[in-house]
Amino acid sequence: MTTELIELVDARVSPTGQFDILSKYEIHKLTDTSRGPQNTIFRNCALAVLNCGNYMDDGKELLEKFSDFDISVIPTERSVKLKVTNAPATAFVDGRMIQGIAEHLFAVLRDIIYVRSEITGDPRYDLVSAQGVTDAVFHILRNAGTFDRTRAPRLVVCWGGHSISREEYDYTKKVGYELALRSLDICTGCGPGAMKGPMKGATIGHAKQRDAHGQYLGITEPGIIAAEAPNPIVNQLVIMPDIEKRLEAFVRTGHGIVVFPGGAGTAEEILYLLGILLHQDNKEQPFPVIFTGPASAAEYFEQIDRFIGETLGDEAQSRYQIIIDDPQEVGRQMSAGILKVRQYRKDTGDAYYYNWKLKVSTEFQRPFVPSHENMRALALHNNQEPYLLAANLRRAFSGIVSGNVKDEGIRNVEKNGPYELRGDPALMRSMDTLLNSFVKQQRMKLPGKAYTPCYTIAAD
Predict the structure, then answer these.
(1) Is 410 in a helix, a strand, or coil?
(2) 361: helix, strand or coil
(3) Where are the beta strands (DSSP E) in 265-355?
(4) 65 CB neighbour count, 10 Å cutoff
(5) For 114-166, what is each residue's pLDDT tens digit?
(6) pTM score > 0.85 for this model?
(7) Which of the 8 DSSP states describes residue 441?
(8) CB neighbours of 213 closer than 8 A, spacing ≥ 6?
């Protein structure tokens, strides 16, 4: 038996961006808050950022591997510094932290500590009503500097799995390249696989068009960041408080969505999006959605399309198009769709940078805690509005993601056994068929890792 030797580094990191100049009050508050209840989340997210490039999809494994890692906020006369102890050496070059990683590290400080004290922990913000949550999402994104009111609609959200084949990964790069040639930007969940590929392809497309202002926006949340550490191309990183606010950030900032092959997390995102688009208030709003992959992914999208048809119906299927093995056509269709979005926003007076008019009901905003009791109690039956069924199916897949890759979810399943999902027989058969296909295609974990299901499926 051999023990892996891990090279570690201690360092102090100088601030970037908005932390360059702070008041005494801000310095004190950041230092004080960083030692409070959010310290564990701050530490875990910082470790994930520093582990960039060392891909793993198990939050528990990462925290155990670097159990001696620590980070603290050190006050200075005009600002703060970050002191890291036992950090992964891959975050450094010749003893200095890589600039992009340093920027991501201060984004962690901004979003975990500042946002907690100024927004989610502030009683002035109503995080119960739909409008209150939408306002909070807006303020977090604005504080991160993601908005540009002079920029025309051009942000394409790309969803897909972290565990994909090389052929699928190369295809995502081709699509990102075609989008960038049409002056479109990329937003993803910021991790590896289908989250990195479109950004990588887009860097070449933007360079060919001499577009030096390409936006590569990565949106994550504390529970998932360890499994999907920000890839180095991300030039704007935002860590939302939970998965529901992360998903709302995607659909309110994006002007169109491209879905690549993925696993349970991608299914969760699809169900969230379709559930929102199925709401009566959103039926007239243009929102281009394209499912795409190489020829080898045709069967995957047939399975996804079949599952959507069997659970949510024809109307849900009408809200997207499937384009197989044609990156140029994806670029053309998305560019044309975003032109319609721009005209709609112009006609209705809505902001280009944030979709205020999109109706997101509270069923899609309330944080779902995937405990065994909550998973068992999900209303997985057809006797409800399609958008409500989509909300409950989304929660089921969210729980599976937690059990697969999140530290807390993995420990919960290890202690109490698999989550139990129960519902209408036909619906559960469809869900079981889809999940089994993910397992067979190795879409639940990174290639080479054996997968033990964190769930069981039963019919009522």
Answers:
(1) helix
(2) coil
(3) 289-293, 321-324
(4) 17
(5) 777 777 777 777 888 889 999 999 999 998 999 999 999 999 999 998 888 99
(6) yes
(7) T
(8) none
